[in-house]
């Protein structure tokens, strides 16, 4: 079986280290994706809805980056919904990239 990929936005892809191919969120139909990594701005742009409309039940991880969102009120309004839809939350700390990569690999293997 072909190894599925990780879909991530440009900013979100810096928070993990993994051997799988990473494809941009906006350049995939998710048929070859095992896990998705989205940022707060991706959520505000509707990425969660796009992923969920595929019906593939792809594991989703959110990158929480305090102080970088320009829309804190909108994030707060969506917080409960978002937390119920994601499998985990990553930070942007460079000391956690391997740990986050391992979490993605575990989720991807379970999905495959």
TrEMBL record:
Range of residues in the leader sequence: none
UniProt-listed InterPro entries: CheY-like_superfamily (IPR011006), OKR_de-COase_N (IPR005308), Ornithine_deCO2ase_N (IPR027464)
Domain Orn/Lys/Arg decarboxylase N-terminal: 4-111
GO MF annotations, alphabetized: carboxy-lyase activity
Name by which UniProt lists this protein: Orn/Lys/Arg decarboxylase N-terminal domain-containing protein
Source lineage: Bacteria, Pseudomonadati, Pseudomonadota, Gammaproteobacteria, Pseudomonadales
């Amino acid at each position: 079986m072909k190894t599925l990929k990780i879909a991530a936005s440009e900013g979100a892809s810096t928070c993990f280290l993994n051997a799988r191919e990473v494809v941009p969120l906006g350049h995939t139909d998710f048929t070859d994706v095992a896990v998705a990594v989205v940022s707060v701005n991706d959520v505000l742009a509707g990425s969660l809805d796009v992923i969920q409309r595929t019906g593939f039940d792809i594991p989703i991880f959110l990158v929480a980056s305090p102080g970088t969102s320009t829309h804190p009120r909108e994030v707060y309004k969506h917080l409960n919904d978002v937390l119920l839809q994601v499998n985990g939350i990553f930070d942007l700390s460079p000391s956690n990239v391997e740990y986050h990569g391992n979490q993605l690999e575990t989720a991807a293997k379970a999905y495959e």
